[in-house]
């Protein structure tokens, strides 16, 4: 099962970074390139334990639906979301938050399993892991930017 590990250091309070990471609104901003929409479940605001969201987006040239659920939640230290339905055979995305000096260190562990057996493993090697890493990095850069430049106030207090 491929696993992507990312670490992002952010000059903002851990609570702000945690809330941005679970914000449907921030996610939509960070995925404008894929025309992502929240079409069912919780479609705005902050995700909590057991919340579900169905996303619709264009990835790799195809529109796809992906349903996820928040399966673990320890504010402001950790949460996990897992795929319920979608293009993957399965995935789990764990989000960790720690304070280090004047920074929040946000760590992601994204483990996924592609469908189609050997063919899926070949797709992973050729491009899928790189694609997913880039997708997650773009999201993390949006979280970092909003947390550090003050735009978090508009995102977290818009509702």
Number of domains as seen in the coordinates? 1
Structural class: alpha+beta
C-alpha termini separation: 38 Å
Strand order of the largest sheet: 1-7-6-5-4-3-2
Residue share in β-strands: 35-45%
The CATH architecture can be given as 2-Layer Sandwich
Q: How many whole angstroms does the radius of gyration measure? A: 15 Å
Relative helix content: 25-40%
Q: Count the beta strands.
A: 7
Shape: globular
Structure notes:
The chain is of the alpha+beta class and 159 residues long. It has one domain (3-156): 2-Layer Sandwich (Alpha-D-Glucose-1,6-Bisphosphate, Chain A, domain 4). Helices cover 33% and strands 40% of the residues. The chain has helices at residues 14-21, 24-30, 117-149, 152-156, and strands at residues 3-10, 37-41, 52-59, 62-74, 78-85, 90-100, 103-113. It has a seven-stranded antiparallel beta sheet, with helices on one face. Helix 1 (14-21) crosses helix 3 and helix 2 (24-30) packs across helix 3 (117-149). The chain is globular.
SSE blueprint and pairings:
Elements lengths: L2 E8 L3 H8 L2 H7 L6 E5 L10 E8 L2 E13 L3 E8 L4 E11 L2 E11 L3 H33 L2 H5 L3
Antiparallel strand pairs: 1-7, 2-3, 3-4, 4-5, 5-6, 6-7
Helix pairs in contact: 1-3, 2-3
Pick out its properties.
Ligand-binding SRPBCC domain-containing protein; 7-stranded antiparallel β-sheet; alpha+beta; single chain; 159 residues; START-like_dom_sf; 33% helix
Quick synopsis:
The protein is α+β, with helices and mostly antiparallel strands and 159 residues long.
